[in-house]
Amino acid sequence: MTVLDDHTPSNGHSGRSTPPAVTPPGPWSFPQVARHTLGNGIEVHAYHLPGQQIVAAHLVLPTPLSAEPADREGVATITTRCLDEGTRRHAGEEFAELLETEGAGFGIEVGLSGLQAVLDVPVRRLERAFSLFAEAVTEPALAAEDVTRHVQLRLAEIEQARVNSAARATHEFRRAVFAADSRAARMTGGEPDTVARVMAEDAAGFHASWFGPVGTSLIIAADLTGIDIADVAERAFGNWRNDDQRVATHEPVGPAPRTAVLIDRPGAVQADLRLGSYATDRADPRWADLTVAGYAMGGAFLSRLNKVLREERGYTYGVRLGFNPLRAGGSYAVQGSFRTEVLVDAVREARELLDVSSRPFDATEVAEAVAYYAGVSPLRFATADGVAAQAATQVLAGLGPDYLDQSLAALRAVTPDSATSAYADVVDPATASLVVVGAADQLAEPLRALGYDDLVVIES
Q1: pTM (2 d.p.)
Q2: What is the pLDDT of residues 280-304, one digit of tens each?
């Protein structure tokens, strides 16, 4: 006879329990947005997220970096980095202390399609923090000493990037893929010669010309229970006016001719690779197919590229392929770091793997990709910060608030044939540009023998 006590299960299997059944995830949608327009035209996008007690706010200005003067590229980065260095009402240290008192964090994001000022603050401190947030954006001091300091920091940042092989490869790849006359072909934060010219009057002029309410969006995500967010936003930003504000157009980015570049790193024991070309953007009807194809080819640990080049060959710690959309146009790239002695073999095999003419994507690969994106979305957007950042991305890309739901629905409609067809339309290994950062004395001739007879070697 078995005597049951408080620690013995009564299912007839002493010490064992029946595991819970695993069921597929339920339906998920991106949070709904409530929209309001302030008196000065700023569009407020409010996401009510019960339980999220930290507000994530993004003020999005749709000023593309192509608006920068050609000889002062980098001025947008310098200007935005100075926003929280003090205002006309509060000097730098005082302003920092006021933000800290509210438990607020201030940040900026600079991209080709626009600029963002970002605030994180506890919900209970929202109103006072919003006042400071608006103050930083609408009336920054842009003091000469602050501008000079950030110019010097940016120049040091560029030097660090030049000696970092991965960063250098990424920079040179942009030059190789995008038309030379486009802003996308150059560093987001500006090149050394243009950054060095930025003065306080340039930052003030850029702010006066491009910061204003026209076209600006304010995105707020948090538990907004009991908060009249339209009223809070109106009191913080509603008086912002700029009769001299300019409105830029978003010009499409064109492709560059195919090229092959080797940046010499004498004695380097590994080489950084970028292999890819001009591509497309999220508005393309093939985007869902390309997303699935990219995951199968190089977006997962056991994707085709990583399975062969890492797991089977041992050439690298990791290699990936990604599609990187701009507002209009974009690029794709295979990227990874390889031992110098295997780099040429890795390029040869990568080109073979990229060609899907003899091995189209199959149903298992498509199903795994769709399951990944369907499963990761609820996790990526489980926080206010994740929701606000995605909403800001959609605004800057010119996409509607229901973009993510439409995207997930499109992913579920992808088939092996549609993924293979879209991928083959965009990815052609024969026309892909090559960028390598590594030892030229070991790599230049073997790469030329591989077919890159137009290879240009650049001293680092």
Answers
A1: 0.91
A2: 999 999 999 999 999 999 999 999 9
Q: Which residues of 56-91 are buried (b: 16+ CB within 10 A; e: fewer)?
A: bbbbbbbbbbbbbeeebbbbbbbbbbbbbbbbeebe
pLDDT digits (tens, 9 = 90+) for 21-68: 766 666 899 999 999 999 999 999 999 999 999 999 999 999 999 999
With a pLDDT cut of 90, the percent of the chain lying above it is 93
What helix, strand, coil percent values describe the chain, rounded to 5?
A: 45, 20, 40
What pLDDT shows up at residue 5?
40
Provide the pLDDT for residue 123.
97
Instruction: Examine domains 34-237 and 260-400+408-459 and report if their fold is the same.
Output: yes
* CATH class as words, domain 260-400+408-459: alpha beta
Three-state SS sequence of the chain: CCCCCCCCCCCCCCCCCCCCCCCCCCCCCCCCCEEEECCCCCEEEEEECCCCCEEEEEEEECCCHHHCCHHHCCHHHHHHHCCCCCECCCCHHHHHHHHHHCCCEEEEEEECCEEEEEEEEEHHHHHHHHHHHHHHHHCECCCHHHHHHHHHHHHHHHHHHHHCHHHHHHHHHHHHHECCCCHHHCCCCCCHHHHCCCCHHHHHHHHHHHCCCCCCEEEEEECCCCCCHHHHHHHHHCCCCCCCCCCCCCCCCCECCCCEEEEECCCCCEEEEEEEEEECCCCCCCHHHHHHHHHHHHHCCCCHHHHHHHHHCCCCCCEEEEEEECCCCEEEEEEEEEEHHHHHHHHHHHHHHHCCCCCCCCHHHHHHHHHHHHHHHHHHCCCHHHHHHHHHHHHHCCCCCCHHHHHHHHHHCCCHHHHHHHHHHHCCHHHCEEEEEECHHHHHHHHHHCCCCCCEEEEC
Taking domain 34-237, whether its CATH number is 3.30.830.10 is answered by yes
Q: How many helices (H) and strands (E) does the chain have?
A: 16, 12
**What pLDDT does 176 receive?**
97
d(C-alpha 381, C-alpha 136), whole Å: 28
Short-list 14, 231, 30, CA closest to 130: 231
Give residue limits of the domains in the chain: 34-237, 260-400+408-459
User: pLDDT class for 12, splitting at 50, 70, 90?
Assistant: very low
pLDDT of residue 460: 80
